[in-house]
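Appendix B.2, paired examples.
Example (i):
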Amino acid sequence: MTRAALAALAGALAIGALPAPAEAHINKERSRIDGNTAVATWNYQVADVATFVSVVVTDNSTVTNGTSGQDRFATVSILQSNVSTGNVLVAGVADLSEFTLTVDDHLGSAHLQASGLFEDDSTLTFFPITIDLTWTATADAVRQHSHDVFREPGFLVISRFKGLFRDAAVTGSISGNDTEFVFGASESGQIQQNDSGTLTIQINKCGSH
């Protein structure tokens, strides 16, 4: 074998011995959330007792990489205190997973029925609470739409959102511990129809974390 042929063979062997470039591993996650949400607040004072009440209820369907699920919760927050003495009378949250929320297709009205336990942090006790509320739209629907892209090396998130919102008056009852916590007109109220989706792409070299 000639010297030139030997040199060519040695070069080929050297190239074959070099490590191959690290292969990339691509992770993709597609998710979608759509459903209805209703929110309401009350903020009032009767004699020396001031009360703030917040209600947020969401009934969403979810799909993540083709797998269907649900995102449902109803949360009632209450803070009640004596403005003269400064004593806190009630302070806590009820997180309710069992509830019924019905929403008109045009967001003209919504109705929530729920019951469960309220955790009162001021006394470190629980008491049963019952919710029966009705939202009645008071304004035309407002549409919102957004599309966002976030990227950095090896990472990309594309998200979109569209929603329909209507302000509403809220009436009904939130009762527990022998007390009615809804008094007068709601300070704020809204019925929402939301639809959002996200695509997340992450690129990792094999063997990296």
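Example (ii):
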Amino acid sequence: MKLFLSKLLLYFLLTYIFLLVLDFFVFPQNTNVMSVKNDLLKNENTEILVLGNSHTFFGINPDFIKPTTINVANKSRKLEVDYFILRKNIKDLKKLRLVVIPISSYTLFTEKVSKKEKRLYYNFYKLKEYDQGLYYNSLVLNESFKELIENALFKTTNVSKSGWKANSEVYKFDKEIINTRIGNVYESLSRKSTIKLNLNYLKQVIDLCEIHNVKLMLLLPPYHPDFYLFTNNEYDKEIKKYIKTIDLKSGKLLDSKSFNITEDIYFENVDHLNKKGAEIFSKKLAKDINQLFY
């Protein structure tokens, strides 16, 4: 019996050590969308840095922009996280000239960074601000083990070399889907403390760019006309109202409405461009960027 218990204890000890090795030395080096984008931040030749959420992740294809551009946006990214990523990396990006951040229907009205998000940004973007302690930092204890193993072994993603991704789906009108995507507009607009907090992070981004002599472009991303129709333009009006209260210093606000991208063929859904739309948008954006540089 003692021999059996000794072997069992040894088995558990070896398993525990094995999992610790995976958790601390293997899985944080996995290849996934986040780790690929964090690796892009090591490119010292980067001149334009695209931050933000899915509106820039899907909408800006760096391949159509002349200065060396990387897209490190992630889906559902909060402005707080963008600030921490920029603060951590701006000193090392010696050739950085422009930072692009979307001010979307999501940016000012969403605050809470979940435990899962913090864990992923801690492990794959190395953001120490999101250290939650051993248990909540652990990928082994909290994420899909199957997915972690696959990411460790196969090291593939569907993200381009410059960090961009979009699909080829074409927009089809569906009132139910539209309502789901735009959510409760007036409830979102009522989140005064969240808006105040996000405006404070935005001010810190503006100051950081100013200190490092980097231009800042705040981008109001393109939406399908149905988005404006079914939100009664409320997001658009409120965002512009709040931005007017901020000293942008040398920053610039670009309203994508000026690009007049309105056709169904350019949109995946009511608030995101598809592959073709991203190409059109990125080419138009490149011309605007060139005016800042040349």
